[in-house]
Amino acid sequence: MNKVICDRLAALRAKMAANGIDYYLMPTSDYHNSEYAADFFKVREFFCGFTGSNGTLVVSKDWAGMWTDGRYFIQAEREMEGTGVTLFKMGEEGVPTISEYLEKNMETGEVLGFDGKVVPAAEGLSYEKKLSKKKIKIRYDKDLAMEVWTDRPALPCNPIYVLSDELCGKSFEEKLSDVRKVMDENNASAYLLCKLDDICWLTNLRGNDVECNPVILSYLFVTKKNVVLFVQIEELNDEVRKYLEAKNIEIMPYNRIISWLDEYEYEGITLYDERNVSYQVYRTVADNAKNVGATVKNILDPTEMLKACKNEVELKNIREVYIKDSAVLTKFIYWVKQAAGKEDLNEYTAAMHLDAMRAELPGFIELSFPTISAYKDNAAMMHYEATEEANAKIKPEGFLLVDSGATYMGGTTDVTRTIVLGPLTDEEKKHYTLTTVGMLQLANAKFLEGCCGKNVDILARIPLWNIGIDYKCGTGHGIGYMLNVHEGPHSIRWRSRSVEDEAPLKEGMIVSDEPGVYIEGKHGIRIENIIEVVKEFKNSDGQFLGFRHLTYVPLDLDAIDTKYLQPKDIEAINEYHKAVYEKIEPLIEESEIKAWLKEATRPIQ
After folding, report:
1. Are residues 316 and 392 in the same domain?
2. How do residues 523-545 score in pLDDT, each as one tens digit?
């Protein structure tokens, strides 16, 4: 039994009883529905022990359940062992959603509680609708974790900095004009923006309030004449203050958002995005607007699509950054192949070595996510993270999967390579070869303008589907410009989770291409390139689009079994490796690495 977690849950249940709450819900989220939550917001982890980046914990007086997706099934089972918390595997046959479970198990008139600041409006509204038949009451004004977690970390508070218009390719005023055009199209008088990377993109500001995401805890309220930015005042220096003053952006304290929205004089239509506005903020705006005869309108944040299609300056910088980043990873692959089996080499020390190599590149800001360095069967957990205390020793055999990236002045990177360190099984070679085929098959696709990721996902999966294997995640995600490593609205996956997954692929979008194989207890394989959506040719059938590689890192020919390849697959591997050598070789000074690179990118027959 995990006594620490059990004691915490007992303390939480006591607070629930004292406040008349029958079920209490805790998502993985900050006040802005960010993907990565700072330590202050890791409430779910505190009460169940699961450390993954996605999951929701629900607790009643005598039961607790945790919902997460396929990336984390193995990890969640391991980390929650002995806690008494039941794992619900989202998307699996027969597994209810949270709202379905609550509807079935809550008694008429009971109370569902959660901190309304961390539950997105869309989620809160879905509970309202689903549970209304049983007259379930919702209390969203109680952060019970604050009453139990006595040594809770402080809210992040770090300096803000300004990016030049030259680096961003577009000024704040130009971006604001585009947003106000959308407001005009919707006959709106105001727009509330709560998504952190969108706020940073629009204002050309950056910060460090979320691990690995250069963003600022903030809200932005835009009217036809004014812009109000809510930030922690302590994060401002003289340069940022002067910039905001010059841009006519009014500053308000971050913790004033609710009281300010209570006092605002609403008129006409206020736009918001229920995916990114918290339930408490939504209720504040919607209820106050209704009281004075004004209205609110839910739309997809227009900043998402504007941000997703990179401008020419951003694209130029991104291409250059990816070449430099690819050269660093190439050098690391050479290094780790030589170092495998040495006494002090393990998953963690390998990750630290790569992180240090990236940090030496000019313009390095921070990692874009914690480096995943997973040896052999640990790689079957998609988001495994080795630590200094818990890691596997790396031997000269099998696979090492390394998923890594960084944010630099000029771009944000993400790349995965599965590296051969020694003898492989025939099954490992088969799985690696077919993963390679899928990655290149998607990267070389041509498709009509208007297609979304769902239309092309099959190209990456079909080599694995043909042998009865699937990976429990999407094939691709968007990537920000000096922003979040995961960005929408576009993605590549075979089925939609929500409306944003239907976003068309457009010229200038950046997206990952990362099929994989994950066999519990055996091995994990992922090969990830980042690709840019480009225009190809236009004819009587329409405008065709395609992809251009941004990642140029060798595939591991020691894991390629040519009996699983068609002539077109061999051609695709050889063409890609020819480009890798041409782009990376000039950036490598060491003669021994040059020689290795030439051999690693040799044509195969």
Report:
1. yes
2. 999 999 999 999 999 999 999 99
